[in-house]
Amino acid sequence: MTRVLSGVQPSGEMHLGNYLGAFRSWVADQHEHDAFFCVVDLHALTLDYDPAALAERTLVTAACLLAVGLDPETCTLFVQSHVPEHPRLAWLLECTASMGELRRMTQFKDKALRDDGGTESARVGLFTYPVLMAADILLYDADRVPVGDDQRQHLELARDLAIRFNGRHGDTFVVPQAALPAAGARVMDLQEPTRKMSKSVSSPQGTVLVLDPPDVVRRKVRRAVTDTETEVRYDPAAKPGVSNLLDLLAAATGGKPAQLAEGYTTYGALKADVADALVALLEPVQQRYREVADDRGELRRVLAAGAERAHQVAAATYERAAGAAGLLAP
Ligand code: AQP
To answer: Which atom from ligand 1 is nearest to the alpha carbon of 185?
Structure first.
C-alpha cells in the first residue's frame, strides 16, 4: 500500500486555500493509502508567534482536521513535536542540503522580507524549514504528498535530498511525489487576487476561513475584488479576481472554470453562486467542528495514539538513516 504524508502549520486559522488545496485530498487519500497527517507545530516557530496561544492553536488545528473528515481510525493524525525523530532527521538532511539550494526557496525570500525585514535578520529556522519539511516526509517513507501549489518547490527539495542521501549512503529513503488537486491548488486572496490566500498575512476580508459563518462568507465573496470590465471570462493573467471566483466555483461544484464562465453575464450573479457553493461546502465541516472541538479529552487521546503510531514508523526510518550516515548505534 502506498504511504501518504502531509502537514499543516498551526500558524493561524484554517482557510479555504488549506481546505481546497490540501485537506480535501487528505480526506480522500486516507481511504486509499496508508496515510499520516500532522500538525507541524515546529514550523510555526519560524515566524513571529504567540507562545501562549500555540498549544491551543495546535489543538484547534487538529480539531479542524477531524471536522473536515479525517478519521483517526483510518489514518494517523499527530503533532510533529510529539515525534522527536523529526528534528533529528532534519539534522542529517541539513548536512545533505546546500546553502545555495535553500537560498533559492521563494517562500524563504518572501517571508523573510515580509516578516523579518530581510534575509539577514530572518530566523535561521525560516531558512532551514524546508529541510525539516523534507524530514517530515522522508521519515514516513511517503510515496505521495498531497499539497497545494505553493509547496511544489519544497517537495522538489525533499526529492533532491532523498536522491542525494541515497546516492551518498545507499538506498535509505523513498523518493516522494507531490500530488496537487485538480481544482483549488492555488486559491487566491479575495482582496488581492494576485497573492495566494494565507494564514499569516493579515487580509481578513480576503481570506475565507473554514469556520466563517455563512453571512461572513457571503459578505467576503460579495466584496471580492474583480476588475473594471463586465465580461465574465476565465483569464487568470488579465482577470485574476474573476478567474479566482471561477476557480472557487469549479473547486466547490465541479466543472471547468472556463466553461462555468459561459453561464454568467454579470459579476453579481457569479458572486452569488460562489457564495452559495462555499456556504454549502463549509456547513457540514462547521457542524462537525462544534462536536469535536468541545471534547478536548478525546482530541488529546486521538493525538496521543497518533503520535505513538507515527513514532514507530519514524524511529525505524531514523535508525536506518543514522546507520547509513555512519553514526554509532547507541
Ligand atoms: N492559498 C492556498 N491555495 C491552495 N493550497 C494552499 N495551502 C496553503 N495555502 C493555500 C496548502 O495548505 C496546506 C497547509 O499549509 P501550511 O499550513 O503548511 O502553510 P502554508 O503553505 O505556508 O500556507 P499558509 O496558509 O499561507 O500559511 P502561512 O501563512 O503560515 O505560511 C499546504 O499543503 C499548502 O500547500
So the answer is: 4
CB of 18 within 6 A of ligand 1: the answer is yes
- Structural domain spans, the chain: 3-184+296-325, 204-290
- pTM over 0.85? The answer is yes
Structure confidence by residue, pLDDT tens digits, 116-174 = 777 788 899 999 999 999 999 999 999 999 999 999 999 999 999 999 999 999 999 99
Ligand 1 touching residue 187 (CB < 6 A): yes
What class, spelled out in words, does domain 3-184+296-325 have in CATH?
A: alpha beta
**In whole angstroms, how far apart are CA 32 and each of 29, 61, 65, 75?**
5, 23, 18, 10
Q: Which CATH architecture has domain 204-290?
A: Orthogonal Bundle (1.10)
Quick check: is 111 catalytic?
Answer: yes
Under 8 Å between Cβ of 48 and 8: no
